[in-house]
Fold:
Amino acid sequence: MRRDGARMMVLHRAERRWEHRNFADLPSFLRSGDLLTLNNTRVIPARLFAKKPGSGGRAEVFLLEEMTPSVWKILLRCRRRPAPRGRLELVGGGEVEILEYGEQGEATARFSVQGSVLDFARDHGHTPLPPYIKRASEAGELVEDERVDQERYQTVYAHAPGAVAAPTAGLHFSPEMFTRLEAQGVQRTELTLHVGLGTFRPVSADRVEDHIMHDERYEVPPATAQAVQSAKKEGRRVVAVGTTTVRTLESVAAKHEAVVAGSGRTDIFIYPPYSFRVVDALLTNFHLPQSTLLMMVSAFAGREFVLEAYAEAVREKYRFFSYGDCMLIV
Structure:
């Protein structure tokens, strides 16, 4: 399927109505002067296979975040976890030593591999597809579909390695779509938020206020900060592509009263009621119930309106999740 071949449900907040369109119709809903803001993070091949010395028991090492060139935060999946200072042999060569365990299956580990950990992952790692998409072979060998996923599960503008999941709303864009939007006078700017697993963990607390978001790294370049400031000052719309872009813009604005250049970490959790400081329109995919992402969308468009729209999307058989259809909220 073409990147820009998805269906698109358009929600008009002020009129509380929706219409069924295609992503190819996006230029019809944007206008000259709009500032399209994109997250240029690149998904790393974060899934590594390993085995236990001696027993040969299988394990999966999932890269989360680099702490130093050889030490990473990881998720470890195996039947019996090694004790701290225990080691695993990596498929492809080298080993990983477990330094300490954290919460929710996380651990800190030291890698001994040829070259950098990212270089090793590029040669031997697997695309960290969501669990509802089955691709990788348990033996650690790439199958044909995953070779396709290595590029398909990236946006065409991804260039900052560090994410363990794609900013999925951006997967719909093709170079041809950007050409059409540029000819129409739509401006474009980029920022980086390295998507972590915390974004997708469901809210399990009894009170939504008690849910704790895992923090994620972001960077706002000076040119992007200037572009957003100019758009807001001139009354032009800031159109966010994806919830990760919203998180970055709103987090920086909440901290500094404006979108300014810089890097840092954000654990912002946006849910109703929330007053948006920056974002005027949002392109997003469809999200799981009880997810923080659906709560953000509900804050942006109104909870009851969004739930009604989702019920309509189910009736109309829209495709949900990563490789699914999308929703434009204006």
